[in-house]
Design a protein that fits this description.
Layout (H helix, E strand, L loop, with lengths): L13 H7 L4 H9 L6 E3 L2 E3 L2 H10 L12
Antiparallel strand pairs: 1-2
Helix pairs in contact: 1-2
Length: 71
């Protein structure tokens, strides 16, 4: 496990991560509720580590499938 030191300047809030992934605030809130996006609860606040979001984006990247039709 990697040791991360979180600071307030490092973490993104919901509108910040929505801009970062080019999505809506509503969609980000839904992903948090479904626990499908990595997030950190700080009291009643929800924050996001940009490194975790980058890793999540890489894991969920869908690219060309070598000319095979979509399943």
């Amino acid at each position: 496990a990697r040791a991360t030191r979180y600071t307030r300047d490092l973490l993104l809030d919901i509108p910040g991560v929505a801009r970062y992934i080019a999505s809506s605030v509503r969609h980000v809130r839904r992903m948090v509720a479904e626990r499908s996006i990595p997030h950190i609860k700080v009291g009643h606040f929800v924050r996001f580590d940009p490194d975790d979001i980058d890793d999540w984006l890489r894991r969920n990247h869908r690219g060309p499938n070598n000319g095979h039709p979509a399943a």
